[in-house]
Amino acid sequence: MSLPAGFTLHDAHLDVAAQTAMAADLRAVAEAAPMFHPETRWGKQMSVKMTSAGRVGWFSDHRGYRYEMQHPSGAPWPPIPDSVLTVWRDVSAWDDDPDCCLINYYGEGAKMGQHQDKDENAFDAPVVSISLGDPARFRMGGTERSDKTASVELKSGDVIVMGGPSRLAYHGVDRIEFGASPLLPKGGRINVTLRVVNR
Ligand code: SIN
Ligand code: MN
Question: Mind giving me the DSSP string for 33-53?
C-alpha cells in the first residue's frame, strides 16, 4: 500500500552540522531530565529510553499513557531547544509551538510496537518527528490496526509530518541498523516527536 494522505517525508531536512548541534542540545535536556525506560500499562518495560522537554512530558506506567507536568524525579521538564522548535516552525504549518518534545533513544535491539498517538486533545495539529543517528525501518498503516502497512527507511536528518488523515494512523519502528551512523558516539538512534497536547 502507499503511505496515508497527510504523511510527508522531508528527506535529509537537517544537514550533518544541524544534526550534530541538535544532538548536543538533546544531550543537555537528558542531563537535566535523565532518560528512563517507561513501563507499558501491562507492566512490560519498553526497549526505548525516553525523556521529554516542553510544557508537559509523555509518561507511561501501570496507570496508562499520559502527559505529566514533571519528570519522574519531580524536576520540571526543560524547555524545548530552539534547534528543535525551528524544525517544527519550518514543516508543521501550525501557528503555535508544540507542548511536548518527546525524546526516544533506541539502543541496540530497541524497537517500538505499532501504536496510535492519541493521548492528546488536539488531533487537528500534526505530529512532527525527527530522526537522528542510526537508520530505522518505520512502518505505518491506517487508522485501524488491521489496515495494510508500508515501510519507510528513516535516516539521520529526516523529518516526517503526520497530519490530516495520517495523524491517527498506526505506526512503529520494526528495527534500527545499530552502529550504521557515526552521529552518536555510542551508536543508536534518537527520535524527537513534537506534539500539540491541548488546544
Ligand atoms: C514514536 O512513535 O513515538 C516514535 C517513532 C520513531 O521512533 O520514529
Ligand atoms: Mn508514536
Answer: S--B--B-TTSPBPSSEEEEE
